[in-house]
Amino acid sequence: MILFLLPVLSCFILFFFNQILNKKIISLIALTSSLVMVGMACFFSTTLSSGSTLHFWEWFSIGQRVVPFAFYIDALSKIMMLLVTGIGFLVVMFSVGYMSTDPRYGRYMAYVMLFILFMLILILANNYVLLFVGWEGVGLCSYLLIGFWFDKKENTQAAKKAFLMNKIGDAGLLLAVTSIGYVLGTFFIQDALFKSVGLNQVWITVITLGFVIAAVGKSAQIPLYTWLPDAMTGPTPASALIHAATMVTAGIYLIVRSSTFFLVATDINQLLLIIGLLTAIFAASIATCQQDIKKILAFSTVSQLGLMVVALGLGAYKTAIFHLVTHAFFKALLFLGAGSVIHGLQGQQDIQKMGGLYKKMPITCVCMAIGCFALAGLPPLSGFISKEMILLNGWAKSPFVFMALISVSILTALYAMRLLGRVFGGEYKGSQVPHESGLFMTVPLMILAMASCFGGFLPVPAYLGAVSESSHGLMGLIMAAFSTFMVLLFLWVFWRQYAIKPFFFSQFLENQCHVDKLYHRCVTTPLLIISTIGYRFVELGALQLPSWALETGWKACLKRIPMVSNGRIQTAIHLFFSGMILLLIWLLFL
Amino acid sequence: MDIAFYVLSSISIVSALAVILVRNQIYAVLWLILCFLSIAGHFFLMNASFLGIVQIIVYAGAVMVLFLFMIMLINFNQDPASPKKWGALILGGLLSVMLFALIMIPLLKAPKDSPNSRLLQSQGNATTLGKILFQDFMIPFEASALIFLSATMGVVLISQNRGKK
Amino acid sequence: MPYHYLILSSILFGIGLLGVLLQRHIIKLLMCIEIMLNAVNLIFVAYAATYDSPEAQLMVFFIMMVAAAEVVIGLAIVVQLYRRHGSLDMDVFKESSR
What we know:
The structure holds three protein chains of three kinds.
Chain A: H1 2-14, H2 23-47, E1 52-62, E2 65-73, H3 75-98, H4 105-124, H5 128-146, H6 153-184, H7 189-195, H8 201-218, H9 227-230, H10 236-245, H11 250-257, H12 259-262, H13 266-287, H14 293-313, H15 317-344, H16 357-360, H17 362-376, H18 382-397, H19 399-424, H20 439-454, H21 460-463, H22 473-495, H23 506-510, H24 515-543, H25 545-560, H26 569-589
Antiparallel strand pairs in A: 1-2
Helix pairs in contact in A: 1-2, 1-4, 2-3, 2-4, 3-4, 3-10, 3-15, 3-20, 4-5, 5-6, 6-8, 8-11, 10-15, 13-14, 13-19, 14-15, 14-18, 14-19, 15-17, 15-18, 15-20, 17-19, 17-20, 18-19, 19-22
Chain B: H1 2-21, H2 25-45, H3 49-74, H4 86-109, H5 126-135, H6 138-158
Chain C: H1 3-22, H2 26-51, H3 54-85
Helix pairs in contact in C: 1-2, 2-3
């Protein structure tokens, strides 16, 4: 069991010697470690039966509540484990080609390994405290990787922003976890879920609200999503790993894991639904007007996460996990493809300067095309199948929800095809000479393209134990036809480079609706003022005042002592009489 | 007899205050002479007639004349020109008030009686004093002569122009 | 206890003290010292009258003599100070000049 953590720990420690090690050795260590982890994940998935616990050691206990370092293996955690290690391995392989020229290559690999470690802890934890450890850990690694190129100030600010917004979510999670510990008397996940039946509605609301806040922070929903677009300043493979496939899905995973709490909290489910819908539509519309390749993908991630949250709000937990898996496939593909394009153009990220790359970078083009089609929902690709499930659930709930989801799909197809058309179609508008990427980068792209194509047929919901959904029938056929038509229409529009005239709020959308400025003015500035006041008055004023007063008084006294002998007669007279007064006082009163 | 005491004491106090307060030094000297004269009056009131005479001759006569000579020789009626230093003034005032208070505090607790009670009659004349002076206090008398001698020599030495010029 | 004379003497002493601490003119300073000495003389004579003691009156005599000698020397010093500093203002007297 401990072998599971060994690869991660070993290479993490090794990479702190990155100045000594050769680049080839670093790559070798990283690749073998991640491959070993994939192998172990497969091994454990097949050998361990569902519902078993791997107990490592007793960590601590609060009163009666024990908190061990232990893993819980069931269908959900097996799926997540395979996903994390698999995509982790592919990202490491891609990074060997992408990041090997970076002087801090070893540290990069160390951070990636550390991230995989924490993510595994989060997924496999069998108690909420350990999950919280993993939660914080992935937040830390996100900070480290976003601000990886810390020479530029905006990178460090983006990292700080991500970390702080995650912290707000962490507060929610802490609230939920402590409530669980207090009211249910245990931190074990399965025990808590079991005991939650018949719990007071107020406590249910508190706990689920805490989980929702945590998910909003970590999975980038409104209002805590602004860190994700700014997080694109980090290395692209890291974005692929963290901000597409795994970390941002931690919020979704958390709610699915604690789904028993949510079954009875109808108000919170409404809240989830509303948040998800708003986020999905809002982010998708912003994505249609962005000019940076990575920002388009970032907002796309936010929007798709919104879809997953909608699924959670509708109570379709298995569907949400299914969409999580397929989204991981094609979003990682898209991010790595974008990385390949950026690498090929020596760092150019503006799509207005790209175009016609299908001739120069064919493999990347085909793979990214598959990814874009999957994102847009072209049947029978994986994206379509999971999205269709969510839409069916929405149709079952209410027509209004269904219409909102349809509009999300339209917008998604719009920006996906825009991306494809602008980057790969038409004529090349840039200045650098593009070249196709090497093997290390293209092989993961091809593997992920395969997964995006055929991953829809993985029996994920069934594996998770869902009863077979209502027959797709007519509704499904209509949606398939509609999606195909829509995707092909948009593709034709954008491939032929028909320019869309800037409509009246496209500039507003391009500036991300000025949300960042709003946050800055309403939240950061008052907080900064309060903290400055606090610092000045409390710390400098009250706490330093006695020592400052003592020092100044002492210096004043010391400065005046030589004035005794300043050669003036009056000083002598004054001193004489002062002495006499003291003597008299002594004689009279003491 | 009480009236005399109060009159004389008021003259003493007023003239002493005037010494400090008047600007003109010659006037200050004159006020001081008046003060000494009133003190001499107090001496006479207490039947110390010898001391009263000595006070008038020595103090009011010799010492004050010496002061007058000094003022006239050195600094005839010039006022100090530099601006006042308020800090020193405040400190001085504070100290004097404190000392004065310290002196007065025990006094105010003592019982009062009339000013001229228990004054005896015949002890202040020159004969009695002379006898005691030359019999019991001979050595201090000679010592005081030495004091005068050294004062004279000291004055001569101090007032030299250091042999230069 | 010559109570009234004690009060009078204290007041005179206090006035002289005030003058000593507040004056800037050297010669007036010496005059205020004389006031203080006279106040002391007064109280000695008062006690001599109360307790019928001629020795106390002789004490006054000696005080007067010492005071005279001291005034003489003091004035000689004042002359030298005037020669050195050109003024009789105590604020001007500092050891650092010349």
